[in-house]
Design goal:
The protein is 76% helix and 0% strand. The chain is mainly α.
Length: 476
């Protein structure tokens, strides 16, 4: 994936690609021994955990400081402490940041146009009360593809509570399936930031990872969503809601896109990227049509095509002026500024791990311990996730540590390693995770009830996803 991104960046932005290449060539080196490098990894990661958990420092600053601490302890001259960090930040934003920005545009237009509402209303309108948990999982699965997790929660949880109010049922019964769908996509399926970052760090193929990610996500959502919701609803018996937090009144006379158009926009980048992968697998990449699919299936191009399409079908086609559409695009960037900074800083931390030699030492230790890389990646991500509460930081750190091992894996197992790390990154959301409190407040639960529902669901989801990944590792 790194090579592919570099190739496209060279075509689209030669000066940026050259700058990243020069920065990589100037990376500092160290001749520290194994013990010193292991100590550097422990101290660097511990610094990040302490800064985030105890001092409540923003993850961007924590990752930046942790990278410098790791570099210095590893024996890199303090003058060069940020050299690898800067190179990694630049290459990560160049490769992943643009994709996140394009995804934000698509998500903003989908919500503002009423396309997300159209998908929800259409599916719910054709669903019996007995099948509502499955319908909510399907809605979350479809809508969650282009939306960031927090946006999906804010969008869907009020719908969940409204449905629970209408049918007078426990909101856990319809809420857990929706949360499972959003969480699975957040951890396993690009273009979400975590999977994109892991793909870039591990050199995995995006189309292959996307296809396998969807394959893993489906049974994972089924088990941790509708099937798990029934016992959880019996365990935590919440009354049907009498009011719904966060539901805003929408002008029913305002035009909105059809169900087919809304779903088409959501699935378009997925279809384009999977089509490229199928062409590559079939060996038709050198044909005329193969070259076309290779181009339009490139992640950057696929998302750009989708973003431009959404400007038309979710913007001007609904009567919005060019100025209004432009303002919508502009407003889509502010919410992702923090995400871009964290992702970029994570890339810097990953590059520091690689350049200092820490990644090679840890990779050798894992190899000597005879732990399968898929399980090792999951375990590392779980430890960082539980300690920091951040799925993104867990993905970043685990990907950086596992990068040397990924280089020795075949393409399918490199993609599965991305998914195992993603599965570990969503394990046990608890009090140090903003998502924990978001779910608690929306559902009106106590801390204990939130642990029994949301936190338990995240654990089940993480373990089921790992088991599916391990099973796929035996057959692909």
């Amino acid at each position: 994936m790194i090579g592919t991104l570099t190739q496209h960046l060279t075509t689209l932005a030669p000066s940026a690609a050259a700058a990243v290449a020069r920065a990589a060539e100037d990376a500092p080196v160290t001749d520290a021994g194994t013990a010193q490098l292991v100590l550097a990894a422990v101290v660097g990661i511990a610094t990040i955990v302490v800064l985030i958990v105890w001092l409540k420092l923003h993850p961007f600053l924590a990752l930046m400081i942790g990278s410098a601490v790791l570099a210095v302890v590893a024996g890199i001259d303090f003058v060069d402490a940020f050299t690898s960090f800067s190179a990694g930040l630049g290459s990560t934003v160049a490769g992943v940041g643009v994709l996140i920005a394009l995804g934000a545009i698509i998500g903003k237009l989908l919500i503002d146009s009423g396309g997300a509402d159209q998908i929800v209303d259409t599916i719910l309108g054709r669903t019996t009360p007995q099948r509502l948990p499955w319908a909510m999982a399907l809605i979350a699965f479809v809508i969650g593809i282009p939306l960031f997790f927090e946006v999906g929660v804010v969008l869907l949880v009020p719908v969940v509570m409204l449905v629970a109010k209408r049918v007078r049922t426990n909101p856990i019964l319809v809420g857990i399936p929706a949360l499972a769908g959003l969480s699975a996509l957040h951890g396993l399926v690009p273009p979400h930031p975590g999977p994109l970052l892991a793909i870039d760090a591990l050199g995995a193929d995006l189309g292959l990872t996307l296809g396998l990610g969807l394959l893993v996500a489906i049974p994972t959502v089924v088990v941790s969503g509708p099937l798990l919701a029934k016992p959880l609803a019996r365990w935590v018996a919440l009354p049907p809601p009498t009011s719904v937090l966060g539901v805003s009144e929408r002008d029913e006379d305002a035009p909105r896109p059809s169900f087919a158009v809304s779903v088409g926009v959501v699935l378009l980048p997925v279809i384009l990227m999977l089509a490229r992968t199928l062409v590559e697998v079939s060996g038709s990449i050198d044909t005329g049509w193969g070259r076309v699919f290779e181009f339009i299936g490139t992640p950057l191009v696929a998302l750009l095509i989708t973003a431009l399409t959404s400007l038309v079908v979710l913007g001007s086609a609904l009567g919005r002026t060019r100025d209004q559409v432009s303002k919508l695009v502009d407003s889509s960037f502010a919410p992702i500024a923090g995400i871009l900074l964290i992702v970029g800083a994570g890339g810097g931390f990953k590059q520091t791990l690689v350049d200092s030699g820490v990644g090679d030492v840890v990779a050798k230790g894992i190899s000597d311990a005879n732990i399968t890389p898929l399980l090792a990646g999951w375990l590392v991500a779980v430890l960082i996730r539980v300690a920091t509460g951040s799925a993104t930081v867990a993905t970043i750190t685990a990907a950086g540590i596992m990068a040397p091992i990924a280089a020795t894996l075949p393409p399918t197992h490199a993609a599965l390693l991305v998914l195992s790390i993603g599965a570990g990154s969503v394990f046990l959301s608890h009090v140090n995770d903003a998502g924990f409190w978001l779910v608690k407040e929306y559902f009106g639960m106590t801390v204990g009830q939130t642990f029994k529902t949301w936190s338990l669901m995240e654990c089940v989801l993480s373990v089921v996803a790992l088991l599916v990944v391990l099973l796929l590792g035996l057959v692909v």
